[in-house]
Design brief:
The chain is of the alpha/beta class. The chain contains 10 helices and 8 strands. The strands form 2 sheets. It has a 5-stranded parallel beta sheet. It has a 3-stranded antiparallel beta sheet with strand order 3-4-5, with helices on one face. It binds cytidine-5'-diphosphate (2 copies). One cytidine-5'-diphosphate binds next to helix 2, helix 5 and helix 9. It is an enzyme of class 2 (transferase).
Length: 226
Amino acid sequence: MTKNISIAIDGPAAAGKSTVAKIVAENFSYIYIDTGAMYRAITYKAQKANIDLEDEDVLFKLLENTKIELFPGDNGQLVFLDGENVTNEIRSSEVTNYVSIVAKHRLIRAEMVKRQQEFAVNGGVVMDGRDIGTFVLPDAEVKVFLLASVEERAQRRHHENIQKGYPSDLEKLKEEISTRDKIDSEREVAPLRKAKDAIEIDTTSLSIQDVVARIVDLAVERIATL
Ligand code: CDP
Ligand code: CDP
């Protein structure tokens, strides 16, 4: 029987992680876990409760009493917070622009990593985030670090917003993405880094299909060695 492996996909905002991770997971009939959604969900709950996002202890207590569930959906992963579907709400700019503040806290990260590792106990998982190859799944059989220029990443988000009929400002997106990348890369705990054994793919001029094909090839090659 073919062994079920773990595939870790990391990289900065809008590098294409969730789009390609979902397709790669479908390809192998693996589960797909978008870990960013978990940080977004707790940020959304904290904002609704008017909690100071710098207050690590209060946030941690909140997280301990919070159920975050992830389910496969037709258009990507569905996110349930304490039983309520918040898939769309957690993508708001209010959440996007503050999630990195919540994600820098040590206690929050430790709890999230624990929950994420539980999803992956049996292998057969494609997980995307910022610290998957470095901390969450350090033994993942395939690790990929996706990159793209900030201009390209802002363009992708801009295009996505326009397609969905949302208002969008390209320059503002560029600024927001750069700020988030800076906080994510400079935080003390599990900063955004390429794992030593991760394969870097610059997706700036690659299509989604190109990136998926590269990762599927890497996974097939790795499975063949097991
Ligand atoms: O999809 P996008 O790249 O905009 O972001 P995301 O993957 O939804 O992640 C939102 C934020 O959560 C990131 O900017 C990080 O601050 C945090 N995050 C993290 O710290 N570690 C992860 N494994 C995943 C996300
Ligand atoms: O998960 P992450 O924030 O890294 O990015 P994403 O939400 O998967 O992708 C951001 C946008 O870029 C989506 O609209 C994708 O369709 C698009 N994309 C692209 O145009 N070319 C790629 N090679 C990858 C993603």
